[in-house]
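It is worth pausing here to work through a concrete case rather than discussing structure prediction in the abstract. The textbook approach is simple: state the sequence, then state the predicted structure, then interpret. We follow exactly that order.
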Amino acid sequence: MKQRSYEHLNCSVAQSLNVLGERWALLIIRDALFGAKRFVQFERSLGIARNILTTRLNTLVNEGLMEKRTAVETNHPEYVLTQAGRDLEPVLLAITHWGDKYRPNPDGVRLIFKERATGIPIQPMHAVTEDGRSLQPGELTAEVGPGGDPPLKPSSK
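Step two, the predicted structure:
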């Protein structure tokens, strides 16, 4: 199946999807955030074919989200998240919270995320103002920045 490129779109979401839009990418990053490093760990967790996993891991390495290195103690290759990969944690938290709300398990939430230092559960991901106030959907606006294109014009229909 030919994968569509969004390179022609000057949009941060589109450019992110060029890297993260493949169906296995975020699941691999999820597993890496939970501590997976070895090929076999990803393979077992995801049930993904070896050739597909190899391709996906290579893509994440080439895109700068992971680095492949040799473990000193075992001499086996490991895949470790870079800062760019670790910076996806809030994205995965937001997707998880969305999934718990709109695609719930009848038995309850699947994972409870807690602050490591205190053990206190975190709040669902949401937009927060600079002074710490929570914003609800619909309370945000955006304006074009220096690298952006003019906004979409309303339909005349």
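Step three, interpretation. The longest strand covers residues 66-70. The mean pLDDT is 92.
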